Amino acid sequence: MQLKQILLALLFCPILACAQDAQENLLKIRYLAFSATSHLLLYYNTRTGRGDPQHAEKYRADLQRLQKHLHQVPSPALQTEGRRFQALIDDLELKQDDQKALYPIWINPILESQAKLDELAQQLSQTAEAESAALQQLQGLTLNSQRLLLFYQTRVFGSLAVYVDAIKQGAPNTLDQAILQDFAALHSSLPEHAKELAKLERTYNYIRHHLLQQEGEFVPESVAYYMEQIGSKSQQIAERIRPS
């Protein structure tokens, strides 16, 4: 009996690990696509022209990591859309610096491709083995924070379209409420990470009014910085609690 149990463990552990790796890769693909898009919008600013070169460095670094994770997911459709996403950005980089009025025309196809990439990754995630409730809640916080950031940026920079379905459905209020629910659920399911979660929630509350405002002074750089902290820190917590 003991030998049989050992053999079963040896058989199923790699399968479980593959399932966990699949979910983790898909989340990273979705997050990196959002992050690359965010920094691209900050660099190709439709109002002022090209921004801080650090944003260009960041979106290019995100794209490199994105391609790495795409290669680890055996989905031709996902990989094809990932290549299209990269190609559209490559084409944008060839445009003249003084053509900021045309940025929306060139950027909207990139936003559309990012939304398609996210949709394909989400579909694959739904077919993979489900993770624990806490990991799903952390994933929700990661993605909802990035969705709300993207919605905010499309309003700030103007003339940009929204393609992600979850953003279209009543943003910003629906996403704001989803983020608050994510925090509430995580405080309950991960009491051992109470301090980290409280810090992230304070960060969100600090910039929340900017994310929900309809007019007035916009602060895209600051909002992006703090929302990126929420997305990256929530993933770090997930990495620590995910079974090895």
Please outline what is shown here.
The protein has 244 residues and is an all-alpha fold. The chain has helices at residues 2-43, 53-70, 76-93, 103-127, 133-157, 165-168, 173-189, 194-212, 220-241; strands at residues 44-45, 49-50.
Describe the structure.
This protein has one domain (2-241). It has 9 helices and 2 strands. The chain is 78% helix and 2% strand. By secondary structure, it is an all-alpha fold. A hairpin with a 3-residue loop joins strand 1 (44-45) and strand 2 (49-50). Strands 1-2 form a two-stranded antiparallel ribbon. Mean pLDDT is 89; it is low at 1-18. The two termini are 26 Å apart.
Task: Please give the structural blueprint.
Layout (H helix, E strand, L loop, with lengths): L1 H42 E2 L3 E2 L2 H18 L5 H18 L9 H25 L5 H25 L7 H4 L4 H17 L4 H19 L7 H22 L3
Antiparallel strand pairs: 1-2
Note poorly predicted spans.
Answer: 1-18
Strand order of the largest sheet: 1-2
Q: Say how many strands there are.
A: 2
Average pLDDT across residues? 89
Number of structural units classed as domains = 1
Sketch the major β-sheet. Answer: 2 strands, antiparallel
Question: What is the overall number of helices?
Answer: 9
Task: State the assembly state of the protein chains.
Answer: single chain
Query: What percentage of residues falls in helices of 4 or more residues?
Result: over 70%
**Helix and strand pattern:** HEEHHHHHHHH
Radius of gyration: 19 Å
Hey, roughly how much beta strand do the residues contain? under 5%
Question: Tell me, what's the shape?
Answer: globular
State the end-to-end distance.
26 Å
> What class, by secondary structure content?
mainly alpha
